[in-house]
Amino acid sequence: MKVASTLYPSSERISPSPAGTSAATYSRFSSENQRDASIPDQDRGCAAEIDRQGWQAGPRFSDRALSGSSAHRPGYQAFLDGIRRCLFQIIVAESLDRLSGDQEDLAALYKRCKFAGIRIYTLAEGWISELHVGLKGTMGALYLVDLAAKTHRGLRGPIEAGACAGGITYGYDVVPAKEGEDRGDRIINAVQASVVVRILADYGVCDVSEKKIAAALNREGVPGPRGGAWSQSSRARADDLS
């Protein structure tokens, strides 16, 4: 018990926040392969805990299909702005790794919240202390290192076999793989390839600006790489002209 008292100060361990305290929520899932319903599922769990504790529901923040390894997430940045403006007194999340998977960002978040008098509460860990930040931050960092190694290993096989290990590049179609066959083969899309040749000719030979090329393609109704319009900015995105 003495060890527990040292690791968890009494104010963090047993002091509840009073009823009526404003509690914001943050939800996130990191992969496009996960269900979009993951966000409302997390929100529902956090809302139930806020109601059980007698807190007042505050703003909700969320990020869809964005990794916790980076702080450059729209919802997370709005959440940080809420901390700066002291819009709430508690932040509730499903677990600490929903907030961040980066050691430095997690420690900075905890320090910022502590300075502002804002407490962090998760359904998985309860009230968050320095111990959680240290241990969970380390575990999250190790997980990301392991995930990166496994991802690179998985990409190496198709590349060495002469296949494509990434997404669909404009100008190519995916060759459907039969059961038991390796995936990653591509075949040239004749229609899109002709657009690529035209762009290269206009830009590289005729010295037509990127903006004018994109405008001409849009006038002619040529679908962009994502099916929509081509970039209209003076500096067209690389993926629009590659």
Explain this structure.
The protein is an alpha/beta fold and 242 residues long. The chain has 2 domains: 2-137, Resolvase, N-terminal catalytic domain (Rossmann fold, 3-Layer(aba) Sandwich); 164-242, no CATH class. The protein is built from 10 helices and 7 strands. The protein has helices at 2-7, 10-13, 38-53, 74-84, 96-99, 103-116, 130-160, 190-205, 210-219, 238-241, and strands at 22-29, 56-64, 90-93, 119-122, 126-127, 172-174, 186-188. The strands form 2 sheets. A 5-stranded mixed beta sheet has the order 2-1-3-4-5, with helices on both faces. It has a two-stranded antiparallel ribbon with strand order 6-7. The longest helix is centred in the middle third of the chain and has 31 residues, at 130-160.
Helix-strand layout with pairing:
Blueprint lengths: L1 H6 L2 H4 L8 E8 L8 H16 L2 E9 L9 H11 L5 E4 L2 H4 L3 H14 L2 E4 L3 E2 L2 H31 L11 E3 L11 E3 L1 H16 L4 H10 L18 H4 L1
Parallel strand pairs: 1-2, 1-3, 3-4
Antiparallel strand pairs: 4-5, 6-7
